[in-house]
Amino acid sequence: SNLCEEIGDTFKPNLTICQLGCEQVELDLENFEIIKLIGKRRQKIMNLSKKIIAEIIGTAVLVFVACGAAVVSGVDWVGTSLAFGFVIVAMAYSIGNVSGCHINPAVSFAMLISKKMTGKEFGAYVCAQTIGAFIGAALLGVCLRCDFSALGGNEIQARLLNAAGAADGCSYTG
Known about the structure:
Blueprint: E1 4-6, E2 15-20, E3 23-28, E4 33-38, E5 41-45, H1 48-73, H2 77-99, H3 105-113, H4 119-143, H5 153-163
Helix pairs in contact: 1-2, 1-4, 3-4
């Protein structure tokens, strides 16, 4: 028996309803989305590529802004903490509905252990978060004119502290 029924109309011509086990879903072939039908409510199920892009963007923003604040401020623990907190809140509001806003492999690992994501999703999330971290770090290095000869925050901090007149650009006391 055919489990899918095409119900295309003038508003959504590429719409198909399928029965997947006990679940009835709509397949929107134009936007590549699966929409879970729960009674009269519709709940969107995002596809993995949208989640991956959201995690890359979220992790890149976290590294660029929050780690950038830590590098620029040096030992300002309050400013650095606030930067991390504000970025996490901003990302939760902006990408939370797409990917869950993990932006940290530890959060993704917790979701894997609690069986709220599959192993495939976990691997994709961790890869996306790693890529996002590299993008954020590269953007931070470019913005702070790092020559990347000595990778890491210490080289950037050394330049900033030397520019501020510190005696030893590689160390500081807090």
